[in-house]
Amino acid sequence: YGAIKRRSLIFVVSDFISNPGWDRALLALTQRHEVLAVRLVDPVDGEIPDVGMLQFEDSETSESVFVDTGDAGFRRRYAAVAEQNELMLLEAFTAAGTDVLELSTEDDLADAIRRFADLRKMQRSINSGAAMPVHLAMEEVRQ
């Protein structure tokens, strides 16, 4: 924790699918540094498609399990667990006071980072008392 002496901008790039406790390290980082959590998301992480029998393997333990994705009950339980995990992640990021940039495995990386930088610049400008740029305000109204 004490390796970086000067206040810095730290990027934490992860899918944040991990054992409990990672949020304490994130909170410790935000005490001294500005932290941006770059979360890598695969659309399948939230809702698994019906593709029949699949074998899942834990990359850390090599444990594997077969599941029938054709089972609607399994897919509902999977989606419910994914939603609960999503809520816990958002709570952890909020508690740490860190911004989050979510990047889908289907996104154009450069475009996503550019959009995030523009939004962050606008947010800082507004927080310092400036008005929202007209072109961005109009885009928000159109959505």
Main beta sheet strand tally, sense and closure: 3 strands, parallel
Q: What is the typical, i.e. mean, pLDDT?
A: 83
Outline type: globular
User: What proportion of the residues is helical, as a percent range?
Assistant: 40-55%
Number of strands: 5
Alpha carbon gap, first and last residue: 42 Å
Strand order of the largest sheet: 1-2-5
The low-confidence parts are none
Q: How many helix segments?
A: 4
Q: What is the chain-wise order of helices and strands?
A: EHEEEHEHH
Structural class of the secondary elements? alpha/beta
Supply Rg: 19 Å
**% residues in beta strands:** 15-25%
3D architecture notes:
This protein has 143 residues and is an alpha/beta fold. It contains four helices and five strands; from the N terminus they run E-H-E-E-E-H-E-H-H. It has helices spanning 22-32, 72-96, 109-127, 134-142; strands at 9-14, 34-41, 53-57, 64-68, 99-104. The strands form two sheets. The protein has a three-stranded parallel sheet with strand order 1-2-5, with helices on both faces. Helix 1 (22-32) packs parallel to helix 2 (72-96). The longest helix is centred in the middle third of the chain and has 25 residues, at 72-96. The radius of gyration is 19 Å and the shape is globular. The termini are far apart. The relative contact order is 0.13. The mean pLDDT is 83.
List strands and helices in order, with pairings.
Blueprint: E1 9-14, H1 22-32, E2 34-41, E3 53-57, E4 64-68, H2 72-96, E5 99-104, H3 109-127, H4 134-142
Parallel strand pairs: 1-2, 2-5
Antiparallel strand pairs: 3-4
Helix pairs in contact: 1-2
